[in-house]
Design goal:
By secondary structure, this protein is α+β, with helices and mostly antiparallel strands. Helix content is 33%, strand content 33%. Among the domains are: 91 residues, Elongation Factor Tu (Ef-tu), domain 3, CATH 2.40.30.170; 61 residues, Helix Hairpins (Orthogonal Bundle). The strands form 2 sheets. Strands 1, 3, 6, 8, 9, 10, 11 and 12 form an 8-stranded antiparallel sheet that branches. A hairpin with a 6-residue loop joins strand 9 and strand 10. Helix 2 runs antiparallel to helix 4. It starts with a helix and ends with a strand. 20% of the residues are buried.
């Protein structure tokens, strides 16, 4: 009896292992397509129209969030800022000169209101002038790569995009799966991804499993987030995803 129990136990382990392996093979066999894509694509536009004075980017450049991409001519805006700054400084000094009168309430309500309102308006106009100057510079909203530059020094910028940026860290691996394996994949599952023409496998995690199956094709989509800190992998490569048994 003891020998029989051992045999039955061993057989159960072999069968469980076989089922698990077959399950993994079935999941991988249900894969129809796999493609590396940028995790973000951003068309860059200027908040204000104007003539380009300086361009700080070229196609292929890696840029950091907050980095200058281009500057528009801002002579008029800078002059307005200097004027607003002088007015704010004058209003502040005027309030300081009348501080004793304000504290002793020797000014009429009208005079007091005019004095303080003038100072507050001058401060607000200075902030507005600062904002208008800042709008003359276009900054990168993401860490990424310049894939398209549509502007040069001396050209006029309107509402059209001046550049396109993509984020390559992380990459998104977009996989199309047969509906037969729906329910076998869950968010957070570890996946190995092998790009074409590359024998290495890179580890990522499932970020999205579509909640809708396409009735016409009988497929659903899976998105895998793949770290790419050194931009080793380019977007646009076909790939193969290897799903691990949970």
């Amino acid at each position: 009896m003891s020998f029989l129990r051992v045999c039955v136990s061993s057989l159960a382990i072999v069968l469980a292992t076989s089922v698990s392996a077959n399950s993994t093979v079935d999941i991988n066999a249900a894969q129809l397509s796999c493609l590396l894509e940028p995790s973000q694509q951003v068309d860059i536009s200027s908040q204000a129209p104007g003539v380009v004075n300086v361009v700080h980017m070229e196609r292929g450049d890696q840029v950091r969030k907050g980095q200058k991409l281009l500057e528009l001519d801002s002579a008029i805006q800078n002059a307005a800022y200097v004027t607003a700054k002088a007015r704010a400084s004058f209003a502040k000094r005027k309030v300081a000169r009348n501080k004793n009168l304000l504290e002793k309430k020797l000014l009429s309500d009208l005079e007091r209101d005019e004095l303080l309102t003038e100072a507050e308006l001058a401060k607000l106009m200075l902030k507005e002038a600062q904002a208008l100057v800042k709008q003359r510079t276009v900054y990168s909203p993401i860490n990424g790569v310049v894939v398209q530059k549509n502007i040069s020094v001396g050209e006029y910028v309107g509402s059209e995009p001046v550049a396109k940026l993509v984020a390559l860290d992380p990459l998104y691996v977009e996989v199309i799966m047969k509906s037969d394996v729906y329910g076998s994949l869950v968010n957070g599952m570890t996946v190995e991804v092998q790009p074409e023409r590359d024998g290495r496998r890179y580890e990522g995690k499932i970020k999205i499993v579509d909640k809708i199956i396409d009735a016409a094709s009988g497929t659903f989509g899976v998105r895998i987030e793949l770290p790419n800190p050194d931009f080793i992998l380019p977007a646009g490569l076909k790939c193969q995803a290897f799903f691990k048994a949970s």
